[in-house]
Amino acid sequence: MENREGKPRDEGREQEEQEMREYGQMTLEENSREYRIHLLNVIGEIEGHENLPGNSKTTKYEHVLPQLAAIEDSRDIDGLLILINSVGGDVEAGLAIAEMIASLSKPTVSLVLGGSHSICVPLAVSTDYSFIVETGTMLIHPVRMSGMILGVPQTYDYFKKIQDRITGFISRHCGITQERLEELMLETGMLTKDMGTILVGGEAVEEGLINEIGGIREALEKLYDMIAERQKA
Fold first, then answer.
1. Residues with catalytic roles
2. pTM score, two decimals?
């Protein structure tokens, strides 16, 4: 028996299992509507141009970007579901992934499980529709500066431009304004010895970052409906 890509069923399953082990990705195709959903798992830390220690859980952008391009190009993938439980990571890599997701023509849904912190906030809002579980968290804070930095105006201007890129992207893809985002980033009364805001579950929905409270059942049903609407068009 062959799947929709013309490969023997056993060969297709073996390839999916390998992708799941190596990249945290697989294709869901056993649903009653016979849609093919690509599952992207964003976990640990977003890895950029430098390799993180081998014992760290990471999502590697050099793996994710080609996969997203393949999803857009594929006639066999109907939609994309993104599961997020990440502490953040490399700003440029995370923003590149978010921009790629936002530019896909296929229906996309994100689900925040555990946490979607820092640069993963743009990832969570980059999809057509977003969910967060009641216990899920989102951490919003200013762009971090680590190591030795030069105390000159150009340095601060550079980091302000990076931060504006992030807040601008988020505000364009969800219901929160850029001004409100900056207020949450600069909050000093919540985090000890730091600035920022932690939003839990419904608070992220109230602020307009996330569309709805829900879990995997709601996320898949929403994606199925979006695929059906797209196929009618």
1. 118, 141
2. 0.83
